[in-house]
Design brief:
two-stranded antiparallel ribbon; alpha+beta; 9% strand; 196 residues
């Protein structure tokens, strides 16, 4: 049996409409419910079908994203595609109302999926350690000393003490708030130095 190349396999899975209509990808998707089409390129690497279509029509997009004008994830019509940066892609998503936020955010719809404290697979501390570190900070121990004691970096300890992580562990009154210069002030100070 002769193995077909990626271009032949690609076109075998596309239902072409008119030149201005969506061309629907009928092959595999990266998410069976609502995801983008996927194809295995001749190199063996899996690619998004709309990106593959762009490459066939216009050449390799490189680091740029391939976006949809039609907002149909299964469309591979090159006329419906355009290039943009990651920032362009995110702004496009927000503009078209596809950014889940507020009550539509996954963490609000399914709070059971959020893993707090030691239940989070990336946690380096236990809930007991987090509470002990907060109590030590409230009694005056410095962030750097606590970070060293618990084997984490200073920023990990800072967000723990600020309550941004381990939200399931009670906060302890008396933890000093860290004061850091804002970016604007830092940039303004740099400008003053350059002007002097």
């Amino acid at each position: 049996m002769v193995k077909r190349n990626a271009v032949e396999r690609f076109w075998a899975r596309v239902v072409k409409g008119g030149p201005e209509e969506c061309w629907t990808w009928t092959g595999k998707r990266h998410d069976p419910e609502k995801g983008y089409g996927r194809i295995k390129a001749d190199s063996g690497r899996r690619e998004f079908a709309h990106r593959f279509s762009w490459t066939l029509a216009h050449g390799d997009p490189g680091e740029l994203c391939v976006l949809h004008k039609c907002d149909n994830t299964m469309c591979v019509n090159p006329k419906h595609l355009f290039l943009g940066t990651l920032l362009d892609n995110n702004e496009d998503k927000v503009r078209k109302g596809r950014q889940a936020k507020g009550d539509r955010a996954a963490v609000r719809l399914h709070p059971e999926i959020v893993q707090h404290g030691e239940d989070n697979h990336r946690a380096k501390l236990t809930n007991e350690d987090a509470l002990a570190a907060r109590k030590a900070a409230a009694s005056g121990e410095r962030v750097g000393a606590l970070a060293k004691r618990y084997g984490v970096n200073n920023s990990t300890m800072s967000v723990l003490l600020a309550g941004q992580t381990f939200r399931n562990v009670p906060m302890v009154p008396g933890i000093p708030r860290r004061k850091s210069p804002t970016r604007a002030r830092t940039f303004a100070a740099m400008l003053d130095e350059v002007r002097a």
